[in-house]
Amino acid sequence: MHEWDADTRVDPTGDGRFTAHLTDRWSGPGGRPNGGYLVAFCLRALGEVLPHPDPLVVSAHYLRPGVVGPVRVDTEVVRTGRRLSTGEARLSCGDREVLRVVASYADLGAATGRTLVLGEAPDLPPPDECVDVHGGARRSDITVADRVDLRAPKPHGWAQGRPTGTPHTEFWIRFADGRPADTASLASLVDSAAPAVLELGEMDSTTVELTVHVRARPLSEWLAARVTTRYLVGGHHEEDVELWDATGQLVAQSRQLALLPAG
Amino acid sequence: MHEWDADTRVDPTGDGRFTAHLTDRWSGPGGRPNGGYLVAFCLRALGEVLPHPDPLVVSAHYLRPGVVGPVRVDTEVVRTGRRLSTGEARLSCGDREVLRVVASYADLGAATGRTLVLGEAPDLPPPDECVDVHGGARRSDITVADRVDLRAPKPHGWAQGRPTGTPHTEFWIRFADGRPADTASLASLVDSAAPAVLELGEMDSTTVELTVHVRARPLSEWLAARVTTRYLVGGHHEEDVELWDATGQLVAQSRQLALLPAG
């Protein structure tokens, strides 16, 4: 079993409720469980209660920081239809709700309609010609960086103490132990790298809401990521992520609204 | 009172519940209430129960078509904090839930952090030098087009039977009776125009989920809109909208996931 599957396990306790355990192995700055890691528990649980196999669109509102330890996930089946089904999941640490997710599921294998792709995958050299984006800047509190490999032609500017001034990064991403991404884990991978605003010299950013569109089942282990922020207004910014597989297929698109720390 | 305010009125019945009436005055194809119109009822109700004045990020999952007539909105205050508060609203027609919204509110007047804008407002001539985007193609079932003015240098290609082949449109938008947009109505205006995929010769598209980021309080009646679809995959597509006020301020950004009719 891959570490992702072991570390996102949910156990049903009946009536659409689940228990689980947040590990300290997928944490961001300050040892707080990564936002993408929190989403995973909600999607594992919704995958158990909804009839369709693939999350198609996931919206996640972050309410409080997650806390390592036992958690509860309560699900509700909101609607099931032929083409789509929708559910809600609430992740709680103790009696405090940490994350609320509403997600619509579909069968991406049955999506046979028209295709027209007007963007392109990031133009990156092969992963084995790339280096760790963190350079020598790995921090012991950020354990998610040990579990998710990120590679680019050269380390990110911010990781070398020289932010580029441009909030745009491109890199390869995969689970470090070689676990293939599936449609559910794409919703976590889009939130597994450092925010692009670090290239503006910012030190951190807090996600308020994350929406993920899953577009296709990935066909390669390594995925090419493009991360962009275009509008930072009054300390609020969006961050857009695209993930493409190595066959040139767009597999996920995400957007989050995040806040810089209050001045 | 402007027609928008009258037609989105909600009446509290206690315990965070509201009754309202869906009119036939803001409908899209087939006389189905427009998706942006449905969101409005949820935000009117959440505005009554949350302490912050402005929707900051709104995610809306569309479950079924709305039906003209009496509706119910049930709200839940999920969390209230100093900087943000979050609530959920469920809009039901009869006993069928039509729309589920989760929204986080803030005080945009207090957003005093860093600003860096890397995109530009659409480059449009003034509204009084523009024409109705529908040309002569107004349909009697699409009543929202009577309530929301849309103007561009020339009518949209699809409206003249000549789709441009490029799913990108830019135009001015405002309430037809001159009501100024506020932060809550921005979340409806982003979904009040025809989808950009009409420029690909498609006839319709169904929204599954709509996320709106409200960035600033609008300072002009007319807003400049940019609507873009870049990825149509297996009949699923995103649609991105930006709204800018006439002072050159980005006021809202939205993305929806939508489906073309099943083949």
Automatic annotation (TrEMBL), chains A, B:
> Which Gene3D superfamilies does the UniProt record give?
Acyl-CoA thioesterase, double hotdog domain
A Pfam family this chain is assigned to: 4HBT_3
Q: Where is the Acyl-CoA thioesterase-like N-terminal HotDog domain?
A: 23-105
Using the record's annotation, list all stretches that form the Acyl-CoA thioesterase-like C-terminal domain.
127-259
Coiled-coil segments on the chain, per record: none
Top-rank lineage group of the source organism? Bacteria
For this protein, the record's SUPFAM superfamilies field holds: Thioesterase/thiol ester dehydrase-isomerase
Name by which UniProt lists this protein: Acyl-CoA thioesterase
